Amino acid sequence: MTDCVFCKIVAGEIPSSRVAETDRLFAFRDIQPHAPTHVLLIPKEHVADSAADLGPDDAGWLAELMGLAATIAKDEGLEAGWRIVTNVGPAAGQTVFHVHFHLMGGWTDR
Ligand code: 5GP
Ligand code: ZN
């Protein structure tokens, strides 16, 4: 997907603030954070445009992604609480069509 912003981030063609990386996954800071800590987790491969296209074949990397999210949450000091969100479709606010998960936390006012 040459025209995909997140594919370009994985390829290093667009700079990003990397938080973590595995063979299959990439995590980086959202450029417009909606929380004190806002990290995006993506599969490196453009396996789906959104979570609507996921199925049993995706179980492996999805499980790994959830584990990586928990590790990042710990590393970033989010023990008090964090959230994972994935937007599907423009009506839900999806703007980048490379499946991704928002990890958000770090609030001190709630
Ligand atoms: P969505 O709205 O599709 O669920 O989430 C896309 C997210 O990607 C948004 O929160 C947006 O701020 C972030 N984003 C879009 N372009 C870039 C970029 O070039 N770099 C980074 N780090 N984040 C981006
Ligand atoms: Zn992509």
Structural descriptors:
5-stranded antiparallel β-sheet, binds zinc ion, 110 residues, alpha+beta, 22% helix
Task: Write structural notes for this entry.
By secondary structure, this protein is α+β, with helices and mostly antiparallel strands. It has helices at 5-11, 59-75; strands at residues 18-21, 25-29, 37-43, 82-85, 101-105. A 5-stranded antiparallel β-sheet has the order 1-2-3-5-4, with helices on one face. The relative contact order is 0.23. Bound molecules: guanosine-5'-monophosphate and zinc ion. Guanosine-5'-monophosphate is lined by residues 5, 14, 16, 28-32, 40, 87, 93-96.
Provide a concise account of the structure shown.
This protein is an alpha+beta fold and 110 residues long. It is 22% helix and 23% strand. The longest helix has 17 residues, at 59-75.
- General shape: globular
Query: What percentage of amino acids are in beta strands?
Result: 15-25%
Give a count of the beta strands, DSSP E runs of length 2 or more.
Answer: 5
- Secondary structure: helix percent: 10-25%
Strand sequence of the main sheet, in spatial order?
A: 1-2-3-5-4
| Secondary structural class | alpha+beta
Mean residue pLDDT: 97
Distance between the termini: 40 Å
Low-confidence stretches: none
Order of H and E elements: HEEEHEE
The oligomeric state of the chains shown is single chain
What value does the Rg take, in angstroms?
A: 13 Å
Number of separate helices: 2
Write the layout of secondary structure elements.
Blueprint: H1 5-11, E1 18-21, E2 25-29, E3 37-43, H2 59-75, E4 82-85, E5 101-105
Antiparallel strand pairs: 1-2, 2-3, 3-5, 4-5
Zinc ion binds at residues 1, 4, 6-7, 46, 98.
